[in-house]
């Protein structure tokens, strides 16, 4: 699928569900690079991605990860799920429709113990506090003890919820994205 038509699908879904999609445009290559900059690809066996949308970050993860690594992308939007399955043909990728709060059940169902990394594109600040708390708690349980949760947000409001769960938070900022984004690398 051409990038222009993928962007149109993204915009259409933003207009239908702005709070769930979070941004009018997909993530920029600059944001993807910053988001993935601290992943140790050689020690990654299982990577989970939340909210892959049209797959911009998914494709960047697949470019970088070894053939032995598995990527589990969890997406709640059925249109995005269909598009990802149709446009990305890579045996290392499994796309599941569902909620990020189900990450532990999805990993178990696929035969994975825990994730080394969770890369989240979810608009956490636009969710209800209950849903956000459920997703973040499930994420902390799904990570290996030395795992890392990586996310970007358009507001700093979520930082106070990340610190109690993960302890070590490294903050960054990417101006070259619409809108500009805060990047969080969270580990214990």
Number of domains: 1
- Estimated structural class: alpha/beta
Mean pLDDT across the residues is 89
Instruction: Please write the string of helix (H) and strand (E) elements.
Output: HHHEHEHEHEHEHEE
CATH superfamily: Vaccinia Virus protein VP39
Tell me the helix content: 25-40%
Beta-strand percentage range: 25-35%
| Beta strand count | 7
Widest sheet: strand order? 3-2-1-4-5-7-6
How far apart the termini lie comes to 39 Å
Please state the overall shape, judged from the principal axes of the Cα atoms: globular
Low-confidence stretches: 17-24
For the sheet with most strands, the description reads: 7 strands, mixed
Question: How would you describe the overall organization of this protein?
Answer:
This protein has one domain: Rossmann fold (3-Layer(aba) Sandwich). It has helices at residues 3-16, 18-21, 29-36, 56-64, 78-87, 103-109, 129-142, 159-166; strands at 46-50, 70-75, 93-97, 115-120, 143-153, 168-174, 181-187. The longest helix is centred in the first third of the chain and has 14 residues, at 3-16. The chain has 8 helices and 7 strands. A 7-stranded mixed beta sheet has the order 3-2-1-4-5-7-6, with helices on both faces. Helix 3 (29-36) packs across helix 4 and helix 7 (129-142) packs parallel to helix 8 (159-166). The termini are far apart. It is 39% helix and 25% strand. The chain is α/β, with parallel strands linked by helices.
